[in-house]
Amino acid sequence: MENKSKKRLIIIIAVLLIVTNVFTFTIATTGNYLLGNKLIVSVDSKETANGIKKLLQLKDQISAEYYQDTDDNKMMDGAIKGMYDSLGDPYTAYFTKDEFTSFMEMATGEYEGIGVVVTEDDEGYTTVIASQKGTPAEAVGITTGDKIIKVNGEDVSILGSDAVVSRVKGPADTTVALTIARGTETIELEVVRKAIQVQTVDSQVIGNKGYIQISEFGNNTATDFEAQLTALLAQNITGLVIDLRSNPGGGVNQAVEIADRLLGETVVVYTVDKAGKKTEYKSDATQQLGLPIAVLINEGSASSAEILAGALQDTGAATLIGTKSFGKGIVQEVIKLTDGSGIKITNSEYFTPSGNSINKKGLEPSVGIDASDFMKNNRFTDEEDVQLQKALEVLGGTN
Question: What does each of the 399 residues of the chain score in pLDDT, given as a tens digit?
Fold first, then answer.
């Protein structure tokens, strides 16, 4: 009997040791342990632990004392948004499930809205980088630098760009009223939303020169560029103008692929992260255009547009013409979370092949020429486009 009791005790102790070890292993390897509605979390500092405790205490106080019913999910989403907003980086953000779906629709170039790409300036205003080509925003004259301060009469000047975008978007063939601040002028606009399917590449032959406009870098931009460049080369062009004016950027890989088609073996761009890790994006030696190139840029040329323009300028493959570019030289990673929400976080800075950082600086054109007053206030032809005409002049020969 005594032996049986001892054996039973040994078994109980063994089981307890196994459970304890599993518990310890779970916390050590996953950082948390869930028991009912209790969560044990491993944090990196006492300050973080105190912050989480404070957050939960305040959440409970709101739930208990606020005069209306509260939504736990909305409160937690708001807390997470606040954490990202505290970084002061307009390109780093947390998206709810609906917001992330909307963001990804715009990133792929298919959505319903007005077709405008925005950012937040240093004062928090939602500011236009560029209107996408052939969209309602372009048709009503929304342009780089415009600030969206009201949507359907609601003051949105301090709501942040994500909230503004969600209000501007909507079903096709519905109207949205916008109040735009342009310098000291306030402009009231009514814009009819449309189904946006952005065509990012357009081309033509001007005299004996090829002209390719890239309005932004979408999923198929490099493929479309290759197809249209091949068609231009079949017409025996003697030079190429690449128009990146008011191009707000997009997929870095698309810009690198296009550079790969134009350049020989070289570094196109490299990034450096917080830990100092350097990552190079290179073109190979299989293709090189072998024609003189002029690239048009302006204050609306940003991000991937600056990567392509910077690579062409630094390697001596092209002459940059126009005005200083926007100056967005940081890279964002987009991550979808398991519940359908998502984050966009700046994780590195990029540099041109010669090591220049353009963030908040922009690219300086080799040939500076501003758009004419007529171009800024009217639709214009190729002949009236003074920047394009300068590019054709720089390329030389017959236009």
Answer: 555 555 554 444 444 444 444 434 443 444 555 556 666 667 778 888 888 889 999 999 999 999 999 999 999 999 999 999 999 998 899 999 988 888 887 776 678 899 988 888 888 899 998 888 789 999 999 998 999 999 999 999 988 888 898 899 999 999 999 999 999 999 999 999 998 877 889 999 999 999 999 998 988 899 999 999 999 999 999 999 999 999 999 889 999 999 999 998 999 999 999 999 999 999 987 888 999 999 999 999 999 999 999 999 999 999 999 999 999 999 999 999 999 999 999 999 999 999 999 999 999 999 999 999 989 877 789 999 999 999 999 998 666
CA dihedral 64, 65, 68, 71 (to 10 degrees): -40
Taking a C-beta distance cutoff of 8 angstroms, is the pair 230, 282 a contact? no
User: Out of 157, 199, 288, 332, which one is annotated catalytic?
Assistant: 332
Concerning whether 161 is annotated as a catalytic residue, the answer is no
Q: Where are the domains of the chain?
A: 2-79, 110-196, 198-395
Establish whether 303 is a catalytic residue.
yes
- What is the model's pTM? 0.72
CATH number of 110-196: 2.30.42.10
Active site residue 6: no
Q: Which residues contact 146 (CB under 8 A, 6 or more apart)?
A: 127, 128, 180, 181, 182, 187
Catalytic option among 161, 228, 254, 303: 303
Count of H-run helices and E-run strands, the chain? 11, 21
Query: What are residue 148's DSSP bridge partners?
Result: 126, 180
Correct CATH for 198-395 of 3.40.50.300, 3.40.50.1980, 3.90.226.10, 3.40.1260.10: 3.90.226.10
